[in-house]
């Protein structure tokens, strides 16, 4: 009788078990045929973003919803795969899609801890979820996930499943897949990562936000250490490798783009072009666009603009904190980080929240989790804002948001984002290919591209085009022109009263055309324009690519009162540099599809091939010679620090110092620097082109021409050379040959007012 009472519960339990198994089988039979087709993963076509590179292969941009880079499984480093298995699924190569041992272990751990601390989803299950299912936590979803895992395992190899996981999983910072994450977080390819870096990335899938090394570096490190220990337990690494990896100091890229070359303005130019051409497919088809930029030239330009603008900014004083945060006793690091997320990065000028401040020391929390101390010389720039006498809105105090910049010695200084803006562009004068382009101080702060979009008055940087027109009309470098005040008839300048003056307010009297440009004499430029007529000059400057509508035929054109962009000026100066040929600036070399097939390639206008000659090569040579004097002994004499004799250019400063320019070249590169405010106002009384823009140009050229030999120009056929007293000693002067040969009586002597074929009435205007 007793045995019967024992049999009944066992029988009942067995029956229930059989019913449960039967129900499960029925559920499987009903559900399995309804599972999604595996076409999505058997014919895997991920959305590959648009990627943009310099001509030497440095990535400068990426656009698309998903920042992704596909990498075949046989190209994934072994230790990267091992780190992933250690973090996510150590029995991946043993189970059939669902790891029952892992499920039991996780259940036991969660039971003992009385909370859900461990999950048991295999890599195959995660692939199923990422491709086909939602993230809801329901029995139905988990059941379908398990069935899909079995189906995937039945149809795909283990390596193929792992390949899908490695390329599809989300890893924070809009990065999908480990190859993309390696680039974004470390600026490296997968096979260049250290074991410590691999472990950091392998720890991300569990919680990409919580373990993000940019947003949560401390939590990320704890997760990384766990992965490293698991790798050691599984014998993927030895004790020495573990210790080295645990001690390794890793530098995560603060630049979320993850690109070394600072060329976001060019990347945006490419994005706009590609969208216009391909619309939405531009962001998903894996196009690779190679620009004409040289990464070394781009880096030199970026550093030059940053230094030039920060130097300018320091000359004009600290303006005060960017904002204030109300800090309470309960404020902590999470609070600080949340508040600093409201402030965009600006290169090495890091947003920082002041925790305490005095005239001797400032403690601040910088974006990313570090608390720094600023003292000594690091406070000098903002010393006035540390005084208790300063207006509270301009005072650095607890809760103030400032910018901190790391010094070369490892210390910190208070800095600020300049209120002014700058632009810089350099091109190859033989093809028009852009070598570098910096559209502003910082793209994240202001994405307006001042190189291509800012229409500004060029000031005296436009004078060489007027002088070039004068050469075509018979004026020579030695023509003596009167630098004296002028009474301008209002009718000749559109009905306005105008009393032009030289920049320094002084006049030199009789002066040669060469010396007049060297010293940037405004009255001489006006007299040249009067002699050749504004209408002729307006037509002539179209040879350099300028729109006549932007340069009305008034005498103010002589002083650069029209409108230009820095890129237009660069294109114009390239004609002087290359001997008279018009080339069109361009920035895209070629476009490739995802398989590396070339879809389009730019066929530029090339000097010596298909470029049109728009000015006489003698004109270009003589103008280069004159602008060489500007650099050697004129308004750009600071460039002598470069120690070269093959440079030429012209400074430019507009009325009230609204714009500062320097445009110049060496035979192999033309470069233009500009500085000004977006809402035009004075840069400051002493901020001329030579003071504000020229140092940027010098800094760039010093690096760009480092290994470039000096260019020795050849005098073009049809140019004659004569010794001449320039007022600065004897020098060689150049003339068009036909003027001296066909009119020997007009051959210029020292002090002569004769000037080749210039007519008497023109002479009167000049003198």
Q: How much beta, percentage-wise?
A: 15-25%
CATH class descriptor name of the largest domain: Alpha Beta
Straight-line distance between termini = 137 Å
How many structural domains are formed by the residues? 5
Question: Which second-level CATH architecture of the largest domain applies?
Answer: 3-Layer(aba) Sandwich
Query: Helix- and strand-based class?
Result: alpha+beta
List segments where confidence is low: pLDDT < 50 over at least 5 consecutive residues.
110-118, 739-756
Query: What sort of overall outline do the alpha carbons produce when their principal axes are compared?
Result: elongated
CATH superfamily of the largest domain: DD-peptidase/beta-lactamase superfamily
Amount of helix: 25-40%
Write the CATH fold name of the largest domain: Beta-lactamase
Say how many strands there are: 24
Quickly list its features:
767 residues, elongated, five-stranded mixed sheet, Penicillin binding protein transpeptidase fold
Task: Provide an overview of this structure.
With 767 residues, the protein is of the alpha+beta class. The protein has 5 domains: 1-34; 43-65 and 261-309 and 418-455 and 564-716, 3-Layer(aba) Sandwich (Beta-lactamase), CATH 3.40.710.10; 68-258, Penicillin binding protein transpeptidase fold; 319-415, Nucleic acid-binding proteins (OB fold (Dihydrolipoamide Acetyltransferase, E2P), Beta Barrel), CATH 2.40.50.140; 459-554 and 721-767, Beta-lactamase. It is built from 23 helices and 24 strands. A hairpin with a 5-residue loop joins strand 10 (400-406) and strand 11 (412-415). The radius of gyration is 35 Å and the shape is elongated.
